[in-house]
Structure formats: structure tokens, C-alpha cells
Specification:
Elements (H helix, E strand, L loop, with lengths): L5 H6 L6 H8 L5 H5 L5 H8 L7 H15 L6 H14 L5 H46 L4 H50 L1
Helix pairs in contact: 5-6, 5-8, 6-7
Length: 196
């Protein structure tokens, strides 16, 4: 497998200095070795997801695979239809115009989800404000009671712990998706090498 050199990387205009790149890759590394470096997934993908290293077809297929990984976050059927349309387009089974229509529908689904999210966030903020006002009134009414204060502290601690747990779960899910994406890119390079 061909090694990617410092010179090649520097021509691309990385955010790393030449010295940093040389420290990372020495005289050069293969794409598979670059995937194993201790740098962010974004930096790995910035370098490797280019037509200089991967065919246009495989780049499009990777985009579909990555979109599929998160498609469940928007259950609107137009999202899946756009991914399916892209795969059909890659295989030459639909026209550019048909792909554009599917893409426009997916963007409309995204906009609808975004609007729904904004409305839900506004409702949540209003509810939180009302709950906050109620909590303040409650706290004032029971400020004299130490037991109630202790309960409020415990409830606050429990809520903070739950928020931390939710954040940790979301972070783990993102890390899992990133790991799958890295492994999918790795497989593309392995497959390309086997074809040679």
C-alpha cells in the first residue's frame, strides 16, 4: 500500500505544522497506519477521504454508510429515501435530477425536524421556567425546614447525576459511531488493496 508523505500532506494545507506532521508520520505512512494514529477522527478523515486515495464511488458509498448510521435520529421516511436514492444514483439507476429531488425532500425533512426541535426546546424552556418559578415558591415556603432543604439538595444532586449519565451515554453512542466509521474506512482501504 502506498505511503502518504509529509510533502503530500503539506500540499493539502493541514492545520498541523510540518514538524508536527513529520513527528506523526516520519517518512510516510499508509492509510491503514494513519487510521491507527492518535489524532482525531476528523483529522484522519480530512486527510484520507479524498479522491486521491479513495475512488469517487467509494467516497459516495462511505457517505451513504455514514448517513445510514445516524438516519434513525430523524425517522422521517424522506431521510431513508434520500440515502436509498444516493445508492441508486451511484449504481446509475436514477438520474441526477431524481437524486436532486430526493436530496431536496431530505432537506425538507431536516428543516421539519429542526423546527419541531426548536418548538420542543421552547416548550421545554417554558416548562423549565414554570418549574423554576414553582421551585422557588416552594423553596421560599419551606426555607425554614432543614429537612426540606436537604431533600432539595438530594434531588438536585440526583438530577445532576442523571444528566451526567445521559451525557455519558450519548458520548458512548457517538464514540461507537466513530469507531464504526473508522472501521468502515479501514475496510475500504483493505478492499482496494485486495483488488490490486
Amino acid at each position: 500500500m502506498k505511503k502518504i508523505t509529509v510533502r503530500e500532506i503539506m500540499k493539502l494545507g493541514p492545520c498541523y505544522t510540518k514538524e508536527q506532521v513529520k513527528d506523526l508520520i516520519g517518512e510516510g505512512k499508509t492509510p491503514l497506519e494513519i487510521l491507527d494514529l492518535s489524532i482525531s477522527k476528523n483529522d484522519k478523515f480530512w486527510l484520507l477521504l479524498r479522491s486521491e486515495y479513495i475512488s469517487e464511488r467509494n467516497l459516495h458509498l462511505l457517505a451513504c454508510d455514514f448517513a445510514q448510521e445516524v438516519a434513525h435520529m430523524n425517522p422521517d421516511p424522506r431521510v431513508q429515501a434520500a440515502i436509498d436514492a444516493k445508492r441508486l444514483w451511484i449504481d446509475g439507476k436514477i438520474t441526477d435530477e431524481e437524486l436532486k429531488k430526493a436530496k431536496a425532500a431530505a432537506y425538507a425533512a431536516y428543516a421539519a425536524a429542526d423546527a419541531a426541535y426548536a418548538a420542543a426546546a421552547a416548550r421545554a424552556a417554558a416548562y423549565a421556567a414554570a418549574a423554576d418559578a414553582a421551585a422557588r415558591a416552594w423553596a421560599v415556603a419551606y426555607a425554614a425546614r432543614a429537612a426540606e432543604a436537604a431533600y432539595a439538595y438530594a434531588a438536585t444532586y440526583a438530577a445532576a447525576w442523571a444528566a451526567d449519565a445521559a451525557y455519558a451515554a450519548a458520548s458512548a453512542a457517538c464514540a461507537n459511531i466513530e469507531t464504526k466509521q473508522i472501521e468502515r474506512v479501514r475496510q475500504v482501504f483493505i478492499d482496494m488493496e485486495e483488488i490490486k
